[in-house]
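Submission sheet (multi-component)
Chains listed below:
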Amino acid sequence: MKTYTYNNNVELMKRAGKVIPCGVYGHLGPAEGCMIPTSAFPFFVSRAEGSLMWDVDGNRFIDYMCGYGPNVVGYCDPDVDAAAMEQMKKGNCTTLPSHIMVDFAELLTKTVKKDWAFFAKNGGDVTTFAIMIARYYTGKKKIIFVNGYYHGVAPWTQKPDSPGTLDTDCMHSLYVDFNDIEQLKKVIAENKDEIACFISTPYMHGNFLDNVLPAPGYWQEVRKLCTENNIVLICDDIRCGFRLSLEGSDNFYGFEADLICFCKAIANGYNISALCGKEFLKGAASSIMYTGSYWMSAVPFAAGIANINKLIANDAPAYFRKIGTMLTDGLAKIAKDRGVNLAISGEPALFYLAIRDDDSLLLHQEWIAECVKRGVFLTNHHNHFVNLSLTPELVNETLEICDEAMKIMVKNHPEVYR
Amino acid sequence: MSARVKAYVNLFAAMGVLQKYVELDEEAKKIAKEHNIVVRFKVKGGPDGQVIFKDGAVKVIPADESISSDVVLYCPTADKFNDVVDGKGMPIPVKGLFKTLAFMGKPESPFNVLTGRMADIMRGKGTDTPELQKLSTLLAFYAMSAAIAQIGNEDEIGALAGKRIPDGDISLEIKDAAYATITKKDGKLTCRFEKTANPRAVMAFDSIQTAGDLINGKADAMSCISMGQLEMKGYIPMLDNLNKVLNLVPKYLS
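Outcome: structure written.
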């Protein structure tokens, strides 16, 4: 099997490095630990369609990162793009919002079973707004986080030793482990009448560790504790939203969040996020001045409407589970046949992979690198994503490449695989 | 900046690099060979360590009561000790007054000549040949590595990241030129100037030039990774947190 070279990617990165901090900053860039070694990965795309992308060297990849989530019905989806283009002709960023904002809010609240929707641009916009609402509504300051969390990059989400963060930004942060109700009870008891909110993703899909699903009864107990202690329960559904259930991941796991944050898969890559909430918090949301230049642009609303309707029409979460299971079952079989301890965790729609035959993750990084160099775009230590355009044929092609990549990794390590 | 943490960095990182200086520089080696002596620095509320000169080699270690000191120098505060390191003060000799005077009593005393030359080289003063520039970067690399361990243990903010570094060895490397190992064990970070056989994570500069640019603040780690000049692999949470400590190093190691 031919392996890829990245001459144009490297040259472009050199140009980028001169005029853009880090060349490519943030989670799409190679410096965040998800593209190891960097020499195995492309840096820039030239075009994308469905589940495929082509880099600036012309290399073709089956893409399991989906833009880190937004690609939910397929890159350049004709239905979503047509709706966006149609709206573009009518106006986008206008003095008054387009009437379709109301259409989208109605569709979204009905779909995710909440009473209101507030729109912004990025996930961090709405997690921040959720915290502000909780603090304003309860008159309390503290936030309970779940260890291993990611809720964006605003200072309140960081640790005091993060560059650019002050220790005072984190002085109201409390931490518990996922699935640990006793710890949560203890923290609540120790901070009685001081906790504004509990914020968590629906399951633990942090990086660098096997993902953890909620234990039976966990969320129901969290809900009860929050209600009893006047703590706003915030579900950060930015990564999982619309992939596990169209009704929101709180409904999927059988509880009701007070506030739920959506972004990524809401509009198939058009730039919009949403905070949806229960009626009793609408007054607080109204009272806080919170806005942005592009938050009411109409094109993303049109794309969002078309996207959600397409997800509903195709019963997308059921397909994600089916195609994700086909892929992960295939990977599990390959690993078993080759004597590799491959841990597959999380939900099939957002599966997480880790080879557990060393404690350094070096074997896993080598395997992923060999996959990428042959045209399957996976990253080292982040959950992956599937989308509606992913076909069984592409999954079979993926499995063939992953098998060859694993064969090479195993052969290179006779000290581990005898 | 905490004077106490700076004192730890000064003793175990800045002075600690004497070990590599006498290995890498012939003149330094010659001076070191002439002295077999153990000097102990005791700083009230701060570090307590021994600088051991033996058969041309130097080691700086946390004070070990089983090793007898020829000279014991006391500093009543961390600030006083930092002044001593900066050449602006003298410690109080509580043992070995005459040896103290002979070894470090004057600017031309062997200890002061060694540390003064080493500091000049590390600061790039008079490093007008490629060899001296290389030595400067290598010494700065070792000092940076040793400082990471001290800051990750002792600095209030650095310790937050230090605590989050999982157990194991982190290999810091300048390809084919220099190796240091940071070990996290029993809640503490330690540094040794050698390659580890079993790294759990690796941070490797592709060249002395890249390492020098990063240490001198001409380049940043994230950009070096993007450009392929700095390779990071293995258990990345170790490196994520180590980088947070690394960000604090220039504050202490000026």
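Remark: The interface with chain B takes residues 10, 13-14, 16-17, 21-25, 29-31, 33, 36-39, 43, 159-163, 167, 208, 359-362, 365, 380-381 of chain A (CB under 8 Å).
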